[in-house]
């Protein structure tokens, strides 16, 4: 088969060889370069652009906690902005949610989505406090034998499982009791007249204040009572403030 294919290729004859001009070695050398000719240049030119590290990775401002307070929902329009929160009297700092409380709220939304619930209830707020885990309220709950696994189990027993084909919204809206628990925490902090932030302890006490809520019933089933709530209230303002440096 190879022989047949090669037979179609033109084979130079002796006459064609003799008629072909013989090139000298000098003619085979490349033509002389013209140093004045324009040389083609690449359009990809690496030009170093100085960029300050702060522009690439900006450091969060110490006032970021104050700006995030508006993210936490409230049923009271006068608290829709962090700037409208009343001052403690010292003029230095307003009552605002702590970073741990804000993180606990975000974890509560995530727990509601894990269980495929359409809303973020007081039971989700309770799980959010425990999932965040570093606050005084979370440590107090664990010291009394209340863990996130027990709360999640009691939640499923009380509220049941959601449809497996249901998908929660990205930010499940708060239930009525959960919204009142948030507002109760703010009100109690403002009534105290003390400096500092609204902590997860205030949030936990707000959950306990909603007697008919799922969070209150779950806490009661796990051994939390008014005596423990009073004990927690004494250290509600002692939570360590998390700040960016």
From TrEMBL:
Keywords: ATP-binding, Hydrolase, Nucleotide-binding, Protease, Repeat. Residues 14-37 are annotated as: Disordered. It comes from Musa troglodytarum (fe'i banana). Residues 94-239 form the Clp R domain. The lineage of its organism: Eukaryota, Viridiplantae, Streptophyta, Embryophyta, Tracheophyta. SUPFAM superfamilies: Double Clp-N motif. GO terms for molecular function: ATP binding; peptidase activity. It comes from the Eukaryota. The keyword Disulfide bond does not apply. PANTHER family: ATP-DEPENDENT CLP PROTEASE ATP-BINDING SUBUNIT CLPT1, CHLOROPLASTIC. One of its GO terms (biological process) is proteolysis. Residues 14-28 have a biased composition (Polar residues). This is ATP-dependent Clp protease ATP-binding subunit. Gene3D superfamilies: Clp, N-terminal domain.
